[in-house]
């Protein structure tokens, strides 16, 4: 029998008995960041391929989401800081070893770009010329010719943003559940999938919806594969990783993880999308909403379960 | 720092000394005592030790800090600059020893090895008050220092070496 206890009465708020340093705003941000990255990636690729006239739902309407999502996400991030008046210190240095530094700088570039993107479509949103605001129209004329260049810049930037939401967690070797290299690609895939789901929700064209249903299906299959890799990797890992995985498989997060993330968030929408690909009439809104909900719960599970896992010595 | 677990009686004097010296807010602590009981009566082994920030050579908290507030100074002590800390919590998440906490004023705080006392040539508060003299502080780069001699001649362990942090608080066993 071995028993360990603190005898000096260590009971630090948010740290004992298990870490609760990152709360819901972090999970919400990871979701919104991935979602924005997904939408920006797809609209940039479509613009670079010169197909922006065929896929208006993506480049014009879905891109209204990233500026809102990123702004809310940034607010959530700052809300979770305990020394928020010093936030500017993030931009006094570039620390290549720190994922959070990468994220802060990428957000500083991507967020304005996402606003400029929406601005470049201003006259498409406000169809009546007499209702347009003069200086916004003048700004739009300045920005519009550079849309393609913005798209070229946004392709790598959105990928970095999507990967960063996962790397942020996987860089912590002290939390065995997070500390695996697959989290970056996994969060990117999940972000792209939620982005595709948003496009399906907002698109008015059937062809566009069909294309993104197929893309989303492929991404869901990829995501399932990555999750299986993550679980297998953990099971082949050290004792602390085994214990971490037991939280998800046969532990307190099993219902959330398998029930809501894997079954409701991935398998069910995949099934519905397969039916859609084979020509069955299914309302596209159902799989899209399930994917979004699954993505959000996935972030909550990973952030909360990860903080419980630790080294025992 | 070297701590002799065979001499430690778990009196918590080091904890109180630290809280007094560094004005640690009530309810928080920069160092603490753990007790590990092995076996069952009559074959019981008891290990007592004082734990704190391990001032790791490969410190994950320094690596993860997005502003550079967490930094290693010459000699290997890991410190936090309150005015550069944004309170993001990345270093707390990255520490396998849970040695850091968010100060009620917002910034992240932890053991400094009483850096302000070292500058005056004094030993850390915890070391200076230990009634059994179970703690030793010195320069590991100097092969003739007391700590180097102890590590040469005694069996010792570090905490969670498998985390790859190269901790610099050594426990004699």
**Biggest interface:** A-B, 48 and 51 residues
N- to C-terminal distance of chain B: 14 Å
Could you say how many structural domains of chain B there are in total?
Answer: 1
Structural class of chain B: alpha+beta
Name the overall outline of chain A: globular
Sheet having the most strands of chain A: none
User: Would you give the CATH topology of chain B?
Assistant: Alpha-Beta Plaits
Radius of gyration of chain A: 21 Å
**Structural class by secondary-structure content of chain A:** mainly alpha
Helix content of chain A: 55-70%
User: In percent terms, what proportion of residues of chain A is strand?
Assistant: under 5%
Question: What is the CATH level 1 assignment of chain B?
Answer: Alpha Beta
By CATH, the topology of chain A is Formate dehydrogenase/DMSO reductase fold
Description of the structure:
The complex is a heterodimer of chains A (about 325) and B (about 170). With about 325 residues, chain A is mainly α. Chain A has one domain: Formate dehydrogenase/DMSO reductase domain (Formate dehydrogenase/DMSO reductase fold, Up-down Bundle), CATH 1.20.1630.10. Helices cover about 70% and strands about 0% of the residues of chain A. Chain A has helices at about 25-50, 55-60, 65-80, 100-120, 120-125, 135-145, 145-170, 185-200, 205-235, 240-250, 255-275, 285-310, and one strand at about 1-5. Chain A is globular, with a radius of gyration of 21 Å. The model of chain A has no long low-confidence stretch (mean pLDDT about 90). Chain B is of the alpha+beta class and about 170 residues long. Chain B has one domain: Alpha-Beta Plaits, CATH 3.30.70.20. Chain B is about 20% helix and about 20% strand. Chain B contains 6 helices and 10 strands, in the order βαββαββαββααβαββ. The model of chain B has no long low-confidence stretch (mean pLDDT about 95). At the A-B interface, strand 1 and helix 4 of A face strand 2, helix 2, helix 3 and strand 6 of B.
């Amino acid at each position: 029998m071995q028993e360990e206890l603190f005898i000096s009465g260590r009971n630090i708020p948010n740290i004992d008995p298990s870490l609760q340093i990152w709360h819901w705003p972090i999970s919400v941000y990871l979701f919104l960041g991935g979602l924005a990255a997904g939408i920006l990636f797809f609209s940039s690729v479509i613009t670079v391929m010169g197909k922006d006239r065929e896929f208006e739902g993506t480049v014009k309407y879905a891109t209204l989401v990233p500026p809102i999502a990123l702004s809310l996400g940034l607010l959530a991030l700052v809300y979770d800081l305990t020394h928020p008046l010093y936030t500017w210190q993030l931009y006094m240095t570039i620390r290549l070893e720190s994922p959070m530094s990468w994220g802060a700088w990428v957000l500083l570039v991507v967020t304005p770009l996402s606003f400029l993107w929406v601005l470049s479509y201003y006259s498409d949103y406000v169809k009546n010329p007499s209702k347009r605001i003069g200086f916004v129209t003048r700004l739009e004329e300045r920005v519009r010719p550079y849309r393609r260049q913005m798209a070229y810049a946004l392709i790598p930037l959105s990928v970095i943003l999507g990967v960063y939401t996962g790397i942020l967690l996987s860089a912590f070797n002290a939390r065995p559940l997070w500390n695996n290299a697959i989290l970056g690609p996994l969060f990117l895939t999940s972000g792209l999938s939620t982005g595709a789901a948003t496009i399906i929700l907002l698109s008015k064209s059937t062809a566009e919806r069909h294309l993104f249903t197929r893309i989303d299906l492929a991404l869901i299959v990829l995501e399932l594969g990555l999750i299986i890799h993550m679980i297998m990797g953990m099971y082949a890992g050290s004792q602390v990783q085994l214990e971490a995985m037991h939280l998800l498989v046969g532990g307190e997060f099993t219902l959330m993880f398998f029930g809501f993330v894997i079954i409701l968030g991935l398998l069910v929408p995949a099934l519905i999308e397969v039916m859609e690909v084979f020509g069955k009439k299914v309302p596209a809104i159902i799989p899209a909403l399930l994917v979004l909900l699954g993505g959000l719960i996935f972030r909550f599970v990973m952030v909360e379960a990860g903080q419980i896992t630790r080294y025992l010595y | 720092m070297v701590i002799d677990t065979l001499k430690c009686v778990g009196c918590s004097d080091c904890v109180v000394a630290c809280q007094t010296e560094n004005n640690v807010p009530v309810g928080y602590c920069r160092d603490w005592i753990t007790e590990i009981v092995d076996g069952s009566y009559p074959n019981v082994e008891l290990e007592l030790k004082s734990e704190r920030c391990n001032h790791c050579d490969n410190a994950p908290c320094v690596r993860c800090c997005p502003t550079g507030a967490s930094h290693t100074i010459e000699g290997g002590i890991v410190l936090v600059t309150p005015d550069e800390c944004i309170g993001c919590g990345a270093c707390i998440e990255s520490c396998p020893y849970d040695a850091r906490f968010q100060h009620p004023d917002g910034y992240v705080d932890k053991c400094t090895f009483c850096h302000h006392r070292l500058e005056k040539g004094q030993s850390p508060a915890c070391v200076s008050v230990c009634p059994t003299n179970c703690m030793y502080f010195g320069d590991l780069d100097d092969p003739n220092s007391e700590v180097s001699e102890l590590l040469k001649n005694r069996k010792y362990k570090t905490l969670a070496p498998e985390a790859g942090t190269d901790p610099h608080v050594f426990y004699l066993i």
